[in-house]
Amino acid sequence: MMQAQLDAKEAELTSDPLLEQVKKSIRTRDNTIVEAIMPGASNNPENVKRVEHLIDAHTWEYLFPKLAPEYTYRHFLQAVGKFPAFCGEYNDGRDSDAICRKSLATIFAHFAQETGGHTAHWDVPEWRQALVYVREMGWDENMRGGYNGE
Q: How do residues 54-81 score in pLDDT, each as one tens digit?
């Protein structure tokens, strides 16, 4: 099958209005833009500026005092910047900041669940123990099949 045929079939299968919305919600920015993102930079994408307004570097350090060194505030902003729809602008009457706050709370809870220390005797509450592990506990790159090694 030729690439043009594959592209045409993909377009046919994904041209539905609902799928157009899905594609818009998961689109990504070019890495050259993402790599240029720096905390406080005036040329940061608008969704990154919104997140910076809601979660500054000081708050990041407060929320995640036990984080692994890979999880820098800048890397977090770059991850946000990769996906323009995340904490993006809504022009239909919805409150973009309120939606962003809810989205941040959701991903931070997920961070805590999947990468958290889950250690009751630490000097910070468990909800602030996210981003401790780069990989989920019990997992390494040599394991096959994810959770289930069968």
A: 999 999 999 999 999 999 999 999 999 9
User: Do 85 and 144 meet the contact criterion of CB atoms below 8 Å apart?
Assistant: no
> What would the pLDDT profile of 3-46 be if each residue is shown by its tens digit?
999 999 998 988 889 988 888 889 999 999 999 999 999 999 99
For the CA atoms of 120, 121, 125, 127, the dihedral, rounded to the nearest 10 degrees, stands at: -40
Residue 145: which region, alpha, beta or left (left: phi > 0; alpha: psi -120 to 50)?
Answer: left
Give 78's Cβ-side CA count (13 Å radius): 15
**R_g over Cα of the chain:** 19
The phi, psi pair for 91, rounded to 5°, reads -110, 25
Cβ atoms of 122 and 66 closer than 8 Å: yes
Helix (H, G, I), strand (E, B) or coil at 14: coil
Q: Report d(CA 70, CA 47) in Å as an integer.
A: 22
139: tokens are 């997992």
